[in-house]
Amino acid sequence: MIRMDKWIDTFQKNRTSQFIVLGLFILVSSASVYFLERSVTAFLLLLGSLLLLHYTHLTNRTKWIVGLLLLVVIIPLATSGGTSQQDYMEVAVQTGIYVAMALGLNIVVGFAGLLDLGFVAFFAIGAYTYGIFASPQATQLFHSDFFPLAGTWFWPFILIGGFMAAIFGILLGIPVLRVKGDYLAIVTLGFGEIIRIVFNNMDKPVNITNGAQGLSQIQQPEIFGFTFSLASQFYYIVIVILLVIIIGVQRLEHSKLGRSWKAIREDEIAAQSMGIPLVKTKLWAFALGASFSGMMGVVFSAKNMFVDPSSFTLIESITILVMVILGGMGSIPGVILGAAVISVLNLQILTEVTNFLTQNISIPDTLSPTKMQRLIFGVILVLIAVYRPKGLITAKAKQYDPAKLAEQPISDK
Question: Contact 369/363 with Cβ under 8 angstroms?
Fold first, then answer.
């Protein structure tokens, strides 16, 4: 037993051994995905290599290089071996969209401590911002041959969608800053429902959103004459946006603004007494968090070529909040893991398991696993919350070296 402990301790300190084991794990899992036809287990193991990479003691630079190779090269190549590539990529794209939204909500809830139950509204704003101008609805609305906009306009609309969502985030933040706690949750919940209902009824007297029928034939992204139409192509768009968001959130977390958010989360009165402007700081949280969701809303509408109000219900906001809480509020790796776990559970694992049980086990129709899918999902969430009450990956404060801090000159400002 002592020898085993020594071996484990030695392995944890030996970066070369960790790199070799990680490489073998990636090789075996990627080969399994490539040669096996639609193997959920193999695909999950391949995605799990990212989690394994997080827990290694490799340098941050090495982790980033290996992570980028996994996301940009290995995963697309591994899933290209059979007819199930688009199914795998569909799951990866949806997961990436949810991860980006969860990171945005983590700024509001995890960093600033502001409970938001209407976060999906910003996702809807981004989706409709692009959908209105890039669908035939724009021709009826503006009576101009310039519309609908071509797919090349998708790229600037990623920023425009994020900007529009940020504006509405500020508009939401201004009145809600007077309330906190449970009342804040109720107000944001109401805001999310108002946005959905407004989009549902903006078909008269002037038809802007086409009401409950939604917007169809939305233009897909184009660049240099190439049209992005498959999930495997949208995967790269999502990965690029997601990497920018992750880097941005990491920078924000350890910036002056990020520290101000955390101070407000811990104690508003103490933060205000230290000179932190509460209104300005909270509005930045709402605006930046909303912008990430708005950008992914543009991707969502372009990918599906259709958007309607039924995609932006309260359950979506709650699902994103669950991702943040179960992953670990304030923890960037935790939120990414939480969003990935819940997305894959909903999109693939539970569906595959219930289909397998239905086909291979004789069960009364009233107890069909297909009908119990949400129940199983709820039980899994309860178990995670019970055994990991602080999240899958708990947020950790940044460690500073006291010796280096003592060497730094003290500013007079």
Answer: yes
Instruction: Determine which helix (DSSP H) or strand (DSSP E) holds 303, and give its type and residue range.
Output: helix 278-304
Q: For residues 319 and 206, give the distance between their C-alpha atoms in angstroms, rounded to a whole number.
A: 33
- Identity (one letter) of the amino acid at 204? K
* 237-271: pLDDT as tens digits: 999 999 999 999 999 988 999 999 999 988 888 98
CA distance 286 to 125: 14
Quote the pTM value.
Answer: 0.90
pLDDT tens profile 158-167: 999 999 999 9
Cis bond before residue 205 (omega within 30° of 0) = yes
What is the CA angle 293-253-264, rounded to 5? 90
- Please name the residue that has the structure tokens 């801090």: 405
- The helices-and-strands tally (H runs, E runs) of the chain is 19, 4
Phi-psi map region of 255: left, alpha, beta (phi>0 left; psi -120 to 50 alpha): beta
Token pair, residue 182, equals 């449970």
Q: Give the Å distances, CA to CA, from 280 to 38, 191, 201, 264, 285.
A: 50, 20, 33, 12, 9
CA angle 211, 214, 220 (to 5 degrees): 145
In angstroms, the CA 172 to CA 174 distance is: 6
Residue 337 tokens, joined:
């893991």
**Residue 124 near residue 199, CB atoms below 8 Å:** yes
Are the C-beta atoms of 281 and 112 separated by less than 8 Å? Answer: yes
Radius of gyration of the chain, Cα coordinates, nearest whole angstrom = 23
Which residue has 């591994």 as its token pair?
78
Peptide bond into 148 cis (omega under 30): yes
Q: What is the pLDDT of residue 412?
A: 47
The domain spans of the chain are: 1-83, 93-324
pLDDT at 387: 85
Tell me how far CA of residue 178 lies from CA of 115, 173, 331, in angstroms: 13, 9, 27
Would the pLDDT of 410 be above 70? no
Q: How far is CA 300 from CA 100, 110, 212, 234, 248, in A?
A: 12, 25, 18, 10, 21
CA distance 263 to 268: 7
Residue 66 near residue 59, CB atoms below 8 Å: no
Q: Which residues contact 328 (CB under 8 A, 6 or more apart)?
A: 334, 335, 337, 338, 390, 391, 392, 393, 394, 395
